[in-house]
TrEMBL record:
Transmembrane segments: none
Family: Belongs to the Cu-Zn superoxide dismutase family.
UniProt keywords, alphabetically: Signal
Protein name per Swiss-Prot or TrEMBL: Superoxide dismutase family protein
Keyword Membrane appears in the UniProt entry: no
Compositional bias (Low complexity): 25-41
Record PANTHER family: SUPEROXIDE DISMUTASE CU-ZN -RELATED
Length: 214
């Protein structure tokens, strides 16, 4: 009898283990399926996100192209760091030339060239008004640079020192000046050199060439 119960117990145990293990297997399978489904969903989401990111990047590239096109459309002038004056003859003088003002740090470097001048010295200055009308009289008096004292020739750019060729060029540095000090004014070339004893105008005689600085 004792053996019978032992066998019965063993059988019951075996049955339970089998049943349980079948249940476990089913659960494990379900868990695997769930995990697989989750992984697939995650992969789909990732692919979608990547596609969206690619689209966004494409749009950003298009925007950059548009911006570049717009930048190209604007005149690529020398602009922010340079202004120039084209010198034209005054009253049939035959004197022409060009003056370039280039910002160099805290200073302005001035390169000036002119031709058609008589031999000797010809002072040139920045004058107060950007107007060469009325035989350059409209350019008005000399511009007083912020750095000019009362006892110097105002707006002075120096002198062309002309030999037989009638031409000369000069390179001058205006210390402590920005382009805003000269932009919209005029350069006037004179018949004579500066007289340093006659500040602030310099008594350089008539006006033989003029150009607006811009
Ligand atoms: Cu002058």
């Amino acid at each position: 009898m004792r053996n019978f119960w032992m066998i019965a117990a063993l059988c019951a145990g075996a049955f339970t283990i089998t049943a349980c293990s079948e249940g476990d297997q089913q659960q494990a399978e379900e868990a695997m399926e769930d995990a697989q489904a989750t992984a697939e969903q995650a992969a789909d989401d990732a692919a979608e996100a990547t596609e969206e990111a690619m689209d966004d990047a494409g749009e950003a590239m298009d925007d950059m192209d548009d911006a570049a096109d717009e930048a190209m459309a604007e005149e690529p002038t020398a602009s922010d760091n340079q202004v120039t004056a084209t010198l034209e003859e005054v009253d049939g003088s035959g004197v022409t030339g060009q003056v370039e003002f280039t910002a160099m740090g805290e200073d302005i470097q001035v390169y000036a060239e002119a031709s058609g001048m008589s031999a000797g010295k010809h002072a040139f200055h920045v004058h107060a008004n950007g107007d060469c009308g009325d035989n350059a009289q409209a350019a008005g008096p000399h511009l007083k640079f912020p750095t000019d004292g009362d006892d110097v020739i105002h707006g002075n750019l120096g002198e062309f020192n002309v030999a037989d060729t009638g031409s000369d060029n000069e390179l001058i540095t205006l210390e402590g000046l920005s382009l805003d000090a000269v932009r919209g004014k005029a350069v006037v070339v004179h018949a004579k050199g500066n007289d340093p004893t006659e500040p602030p105008a310099g008594a350089a005689g008539g006006r033989i060439a003029c150009g607006v600085i811009n």
